[in-house]
Amino acid sequence: MKSTFSIPFDITAPQAVWKAMVIDMPMTMAASSLRFAAQRLQAQADFLSSLTQCRSVTAAVDVQSTFAQAAVNDYTASATRLMADAQQAILRKAA
């Protein structure tokens, strides 16, 4: 029975490409993820702080809606940026 498993990269690739895939790309992704987590935690703190200033349910709902929309936008932008950063980390070393 023939295996359908295939390796997604050239096993004979130069050492620089392996380093890019095994070290540089994961480190880049980790750094980017930690930066994003810090930004989101700051946004959460700002959101909670702004809730304390609300004097009505309507104001609180508005603050919540703004926060939720910003979170969706931030997650979308971060995912796009994370993939671009990972790709660049590999391509920089592979070139």
Automatic annotation (TrEMBL):
**Pfam families xref list:** Phasin_2
Give all residue intervals belonging to the Phasin domain.
28-88
InterPro entries named among the record's database cross-references: Phasin
Q: What is this protein called?
A: Phasin family protein
